[in-house]
Amino acid sequence: MIDQKITIIGGGNLGGAIAFGLIKSKQIQPSAITVTRRRLNLLEKLQEQGVKITNDNVEASKNADIIILAIKPYQVLEIIQEIKPVLNSNQILISLVAGVGLQKLEEVAGSDVQIFRAMPNTAIAIQESMTLISTNVKSEELRNLVLHIFNQLGQTTIITEDLMAAATVLASCGIAFALRYMRAAMQGGIEIGFGAEMAQFITAQTVKGATGLILDSGRHPEQEIDKVTTPRGITITGLNEMEHKGFSSSLIQGLIASFNKIEKG
Ligand SMILES: NC(=O)C1=CN([C@@H]2O[C@H](COP(=O)(O)OP(=O)(O)OC[C@H]3O[C@@H](n4cnc5c(N)ncnc54)[C@H](OP(=O)(O)O)[C@@H]3O)[C@@H](O)[C@H]2O)C=CC1
Ligand SMILES: O=C(O)[C@@H]1CCC=N1
């Protein structure tokens, strides 16, 4: 069980999904969760589940054990300043904000607070996130607590801060890249004969199967691809045509462009 009181500042896509995911996990009482945003009417569903809602970040942070920052990057430093007067050294501050490093967060929040960064993806809405965590906090107990919270919402790993930009690209942006593959596969599927709905279902189940093969076996994708590519066959013809058109190269260049965007700020 999670006995701590959790405040989520910014109940949008991620903040809201975390609250719903935690409730679903049954590891925490809904009344131990507070979610803030300015348009409170958009938090009605969470309120119906027993979550406390407010537009007062300071009040919501006062008695929280854990404060999760799920606002936009351009707001994060201002909002830390806003809640700083009520922060204390027993509290854990977890920033989900992309592109704002631990050093900057520590500078603004002060070194007393226990600061973590967590980088999830939108599959957190179905408790299937890949969440990467970084921190300077040394306490195993606190690290395990933060891991435990995000483990309710998918898979979680602690990494060093210098890898957080790469983690943001590969996991958080990565889900959009994977979905764009799916959209393209569907469009191709429609052109060769399926209706959109059927093409979507076939594509989604096929991607799920590919994911399962890799996660279950830990084998390199190319080993699984080798099992599909009959010599002089149909698959290798398609794969090679995709590579001639720059499939892998364009994906890698896209990842690097996203990475450079974070690095440049
Ligand atoms: N989306 C993603 O896939 C990922 C996002 N991130 C990071 O997570 C953060 C949140 O992203 P996301 O959930 O997509 O963004 P959203 O825009 O969906 O959520 C941000 C929320 O903050 C609320 N908000 C704005 N101002 C305030 C304020 N002063 N006080 C309290 N709440 C406020 C907004 O609601 P209202 O306007 O009603 O106040 C909104 O619901 C970003 O920093 C992003 O970098 C990280 C990994 C993945
Ligand atoms: O695109 C963005 O900036 C955010 C951070 C990672 C995913 N979405």
Estimate the mean pLDDT confidence: 97
Number of helices: 11
Q: Percent of residues in beta strands?
A: 5-15%
Q: What is the CATH first-level class name of the largest domain?
A: Alpha Beta
CATH superfamily membership of the largest domain, which one? NAD(P)-binding Rossmann-like Domain
Structural class given helices, strands, pairing? Answer: alpha/beta
Helix content: 40-55%
Series of H and E elements: EHEHEHEHEHEEHEHHHHH
* Tally of individual domains: 2
The biggest beta sheet, please? 8 strands, mixed
Binding site for NADPH: 57
Keywords: Amino-acid biosynthesis, Cytoplasm, NADP, Oxidoreductase, Proline biosynthesis
Function: Catalyzes the reduction of 1-pyrroline-5-carboxylate (PCA) to L-proline.
Pathway: Amino-acid biosynthesis; L-proline biosynthesis; L-proline from L-glutamate 5-semialdehyde: step 1/1
